[in-house]
Design brief:
45% helix, 370 residues, 15 helices, three-stranded antiparallel beta sheet, BirA Bifunctional Protein, domain 2
Length: 370
Amino acid sequence: MLAMPRSGTAQAALDRAVSILAEHLADTGATRLDLPHIYEADTLLDLYGEDLRARAFVYPDPDQGRELCLRPDFTVPVALVHRASGWDKVASYTYQGPVFRRQPPGLQRPVEFVQAGIERFGEDDPVAADVGVFKTLYRGLAELGLDEPEVTIGDLSIPFALLNALEMPEHRRDSLRRHFWRPTRFRDLLMRAQAPSDAREVPGDDLDRRATDAGEPVGLRSIADVTKRLVRLSAARRDAAMTVEQAKLIDGVLQIRAPARQALAQLERVTTEAGVDLSVAIRRFADRVEALDVAGVDMDRMIFDASFGRNLEYYDGFVFELRAPGKPDGHPPLAGGGRYDAMTTHLGASSPISAVGGIIRPEAVLEALA
């Protein structure tokens, strides 16, 4: 649905909330950015992943022969600004304004809504940067009058480190990592990897002809993309099946959901018993838990979910969401964010640059308070 028109007290309430957040974010010392609404589609959409890419508003630019899109979020546009200033620079930025996304049928969410947020780049201490962004948004909700939100955190570096630690074909590892944000698809891949090679459904030979005979491509993928995928699937048929032990370990780690300290103990126990060394990723998680505790966050109310990824494929480390207490899953999060170092290399950095940020949705906060 379209954004609801606001007037009178409703508009005044939103204006006041945005103003409060702007002042709160400015107090961090970050540089305020006013960003365009429209970007070249290729620049943004390759970084968002399939889910958000399918929800972007894309349209042709007949004069330039390219596709344009309304910004679906602020993170990539802000990263482009930082790239222009130099990757080696330590900087933080704040912003506010509307973003535009197609919404899944039935959710009755607006396709245009306001975000206000912060992004931080180039800091030497990633744990301190993660905690700093989290505290800024947590306190931003308090500034708007919402205390003690429900908090879910995750750390994508843990499941990714697990996949890297297990012996498996590289394309299987890449496929599992690529679909981590889609739990149903991920578990389907996990089941298929355990099947004997002759039981896997994959295309046969003559893949170029099969793709070409299908006619003009329909949708977002070209014939070359489809052919490349068919070749990858055909190669997967020759791989040895994933062992039951590997599958159980992956599933066991991803099922961990508990208050942060309990989850940390469970991660250490499960991986130690399996003889898999994830000490670097788990130590970073432990350091972050300790830093959040020192910052005054109630760790008993903070739930760690090992399968949590926020549905944005540029994240590769700490992720979090803050929700209104007691609201159903269909209600949008009030705030959220995470770490996305690897994205900077896709934008041209020679090596990953520390990058973390997050947003608050003031309209969702007002709705929760109402």
